[in-house]
Amino acid sequence: MRPHLHSNLRRAPWRLLGAVILMALMFLSADPAQAQRNSDRADWMREARFGVMTHFLHDWIMQRSRDRMTPENWNTLVDGFNVEAVANQLQSVGAAYYLISIGQNSGYYLSPNATYDRITGIRPSHLSHRDLVADLAPALAKRGIRLMVYLPAGAPSGDAAARAALKWQPGPYRNAEFQRNWESIIREWSLRWGDKVSGWWFDGVYWPNNMYRSVAPPNFRSFAGAARAGNPRAVVAFNPGQVNRTISLTPYEDYIAGEIEDPTLWSARRNFEGVIDGAQIHFLSHLGAQWGQGAARFTTEQAVDFSRKVAQIGGVVTWDTPAGRDGTFAPEFLAQLKAIREAIRTTPVQRDTLPDAHDTATTP
């Protein structure tokens, strides 16, 4: 035994060296983009490259006609959303996905949710009778367009009764009780919609350290888990606000929220095919004068140029586009969206050669 042991020890350094060389070769031959992704759930986004968003909100749309904010008026508005007409328009401009708001600060939501009604106790409910998300999904699916949904991470700021019932305290607080309530509400929607919804975009994640970074739930993991309860393949992003550079908040998100008010300030550190810090690079801004409202604020050439800069590094582009009472878009925006899609479709991705490259892609 002793000579054999001695022989093994003598050969050990060479075996160790061989193992190191093998590991190095494996690392060099691996796909670095794949290695650094949080998941492969956002692969379809990278291939899609372009989508459209709508803020279909009670207070934003109803104020144009000076209608009062009431459950009856909200139901009338949601019932009037023409899913077939919207789906046809999205297909005509080449959108690969459609992102629509479930609700926001008013506390009016475009889909029923028994958990929300039970917790808040608000009567009559501020949630629509019609499930607009469920109705949109098949109209989009038959045209090859995916559906995504938007929801704030906090309680509706304009509804005091909902805020109190949900136990929401705005600011850098743990908000554990609120978060458990919110996740149960999200879970109901997710389970109902299943794979009809391909992704979630959560707004207002302003206090990530206080609310979501704990080891014990509720945390980022449980938050994302609630959104994926009905579809484990759904992509998730958490938005910390308008940030001029691409930034990922957590390994539990698949793509970067990417909200920016002024596209000329947008920049991103180039990385392998649009992936940075594990998440797919994603850009979101608005074509109208404001989010969800107003006339076109850019020329078509400007909007195309902003979009192309994102596409060049493998990023995904979403443009928020003002919608009418029936959900449809004005001709001026349809023309811009079609031009953006055509430009992105023919824009090649500029690939880096090293994972630590410090080149940046910025708009002029």
Structure description:
The chain is an alpha/beta fold. The protein folds into 2 domains: 1-30; 38-362, Glycosidases (TIM Barrel, Alpha-Beta Barrel), CATH 3.20.20. It contains 14 helices and 13 strands. The protein has helices spanning 2-29, 32-35, 43-48, 58-62, 71-79, 83-93, 114-120, 132-141, 160-166, 176-193, 208-211, 220-227, 300-311, 331-345, and strands at 50-54, 97-101, 146-152, 199-203, 235-238, 267-269, 275-276, 279-280, 282-286, 288-290, 293-296, 316-320, 360-362. The strands form 4 sheets. Strands 5-4-3-2-1-12-9 form a 7-stranded parallel beta sheet. Helix 6 (83-93) packs across helix 8 (132-141), helix 7 runs antiparallel to helix 10 (176-193) and helix 10 runs parallel beside helix 12 (220-227). The longest helix has 28 residues, at 2-29. The model is unreliable at 1-35 and 353-364 (pLDDT under 50).
Which superfamily, in CATH terms, is the homologous superfamily of the largest domain? Glycosidases
What gross morphology would you assign? globular
Count of DSSP E strands? Answer: 13
Structural class: alpha/beta
Mean pLDDT: 87
**C-alpha end-to-end distance:** 73 Å
Strand fraction band?
5-15%
